Amino acid sequence: MMNGGDDAVKAQNKSRTLGRLDSLDMEASRVPGWQDLNKGFSTALILKLAFESIGVIYGDLGTSPLYVFSSTFTSDNPPRRDDVLGALCLIIYSLSLIPLIKYVVVVLSANDNGNGGTFALYSLICRYAKVSRFQNEQVEDQKLSGYRLPSPDRAVRRAAKIKEALECSAFAKGTLLLLTLLGTCAVMGDGVLTPVISVLSAVDGIQIKKASLTNDHVVLISVAILVIIFSIQRFGTEKVAFLFAPCVFVWFLLISGIGIFNIVKHDAGIFRAFNPYYIIDYFRRNGKQGWISLGGIVLALTGTEAMFADLGHFSVPSVRIAFSTVVYPSLLAAYIGQGAYLLKYPEDVSQTFYKSIPGPMFWPMFVVAVGAAIIASQAMISAVFSIVEQSLALGCFPTVKVVHTSSKFAGQVYIPEVNWILMILCIIVTGSFKTTSYIGNAYGMTVLAVMLVTTTLVTLIMLMIWQTKLYLALAFFIIFGTVEMVYFTANLYKFTQGGWLPVAFSSILVVAMAVWHYVTSRKYKFESDNKVSMTSLISRLESDLRLSRVPGIGLMYTQLVQGVPPIFDLFVDNMKALHSVIVFVSVKHLPISFVPVEERFLVRRVGSKEYRMYRTVVRYGYMDSLIPHQEFEDLLLGSLEEFIKVEAFALTMLDESKHHENFDESEDSSSDSLHPAQEKKSGSGSSQEAYAASTSLIHQRTEELETEWEFLSKARIDGVTYLLGSSVVEASPSSSIGKRFVVNVLYDLLQRLSRKSRVALQIPHKNLVEVGITYTL
């Protein structure tokens, strides 16, 4: 009995520390280190993932040799010998500096539980400092296994100051979110331009063997291939993904082999391009024209961001091995070989890639090139789907339908609306620009925008989280930021020659996502300001004679994670009834990649037991898939059962602890006046009384547990009804003109174009009850 008393005291102390009892207290303790980044991978598995990553990640970067030299120089003004050496020197050192040193060495280390991309960087910063713009945060979220960051060995004053500055500045928080949205929108812009430039540049080579084909024919063939690519998206990539890696691997073998062939055959002196002097000489001789040509050279870096964005499907070692051993050497060999060919045939600069192919190899290379272009397009389209899903999860994108095309891989999704919009935009861009030179001008802008955002966020992570030495973090930001900004300004010069396209596209997306996020945040504040007080709730449940409780479970959805939402009063006023069991459901997405199923549900009780009202917060990571409604109901009932058991056990321990305290006090007060024999007899009787009282308490709690669980089970059999608010959002009459335009015009348009909440939450229509609610912001 004394051991039981000690357990009770521990339970009591635990409940006092937490302030309230919830199911997470027990569940989180069972999931130690759900995603351990230090987990070991076998050498065979790393090599297998490295091979697979070649097909998924490096298709875009690998097809860049199709169009880099043709976008840098024009056939009207063929490059001189020193110009070829200078441009090639820029390509060599750009590939070495950005993809190899920046991404492979540094950026890949800034992953979020193995996931990469702009949102991963943002989530790392949000977990370290309270800079998130999402208002439904809870202290309990920080207990999640995937939420934790390694604790620094020592407190660094500089990191603490940066963290404090970010947390205290609304402007800094807004800027950080805006940078994240900008990087996200730039990647979406890649989703339009990558299929166009990859397919168009691959098909363009057919004119060398079929001179009768005009540019219009090339455009029509490219459009037909693009339509096929987007039409098969609904089947998912799983069925054809096994072909990606072999095809792209063969592509890298061929371009490297042909590059070596051209070096040996045409001019082995091309290796002088490794001398950095040729970069200085290139700009000295060409001046402004040399700076403008950087807009073409930067295309050698397109697809670099995919190394980080698609990291979640592989591992850091596998991505590093694939780039260092296959991709980087193959690209160097391809570009050096093309340079050697141009030293001898500078007039062929507009078709450098296909002209440099030995005759017998032309058609095999053409077929593989088209295949590699399709794979590059597929990879970027899939990346856009994943990014839109992440944006949806964080409340930054209008509601669209998300279809999961694979039962094995949660990240493989298909979004119909986004797919067809991308296809239409790709067809328009292909038909309007027709040549890769203009499209290349637009493409470079999106690539560099993503790189600049990544450089900024990684620098912040180096200073705050990694606590890197100041001079190293500044060196990273200055060196890479300067290089990327120089390339960016060169692309800005070509703003009227295609560079305007990604700016316009990204601007529209940023505005749409910012408006959606702003109004969503204001809706949450409206619910928080107008939530039902507990006094009012008790009054409605106990005093309202017109209110009846009907059989079944009612799942009332709300954004609130605390308090009773205003929609509760609306349901009561309109229906004059409530289900026998009410569960307030709040679905929230956290700035982490995944939430384990064991930690998904956070359950609490609302009011007294007889009310049969609960609250559950359903937590998802930005890479998690929503649970289908049938499975969701099973998991929810299982979480409620677990909560009731834990609550009954804790209350029993607390009652037993109080009983022992009272018993010890009464025993101490009477022990001095008793004869030893009487004391022994009394102690024996008291122990029996204590045991009987303890047994009675346990029996009582067990009966209460069984009664409540039987009630819930019966309610589940009676049926589950989903209770949602059909919302109308409008700006208050006193709002400014700008706010009224944002809320009443822009958000209203986005809401009309988006899908309803029940579609996003995968709620069956037959089990749905909606009531109108007006949000006045």
Automatic annotation (TrEMBL):
Q: Where are the transmembrane segments?
A: 84-105, 176-197, 217-235, 242-264, 291-309, 321-341, 361-388, 409-430, 442-463, 470-488, 500-519
Superkingdom per UniProt: Eukaryota
Region Disordered: list its residue ranges.
Answer: 660-688
Give a single Pfam family match: K_trans
Q: Domain K+ potassium transporter integral membrane spans what residues?
A: 49-538
Q: Where is this protein found?
A: Membrane
Location of the K+ potassium transporter C-terminal domain: 551-776
Q: Does the keyword Transport apply?
A: yes
Give GO MF terms, alphabetically. potassium ion transmembrane transporter activity
Protein keywords? Ion transport, Membrane, Potassium, Potassium transport, Transmembrane, Transmembrane helix, Transport
Q: Does the keyword Nucleotidyltransferase apply?
A: no
Bilayer disposition of the protein: Multi-pass membrane protein
User: Which GO cellular component does the record give, naming just one?
Assistant: membrane
What does this protein's UniProt record list under function? Answer: Potassium transporter.
* Family to which this protein belongs: Belongs to the HAK/KUP transporter (TC 2.A.72.3) family.
NCBIfam families, per this entry?
A: kup
This chain's protein is named Potassium transporter
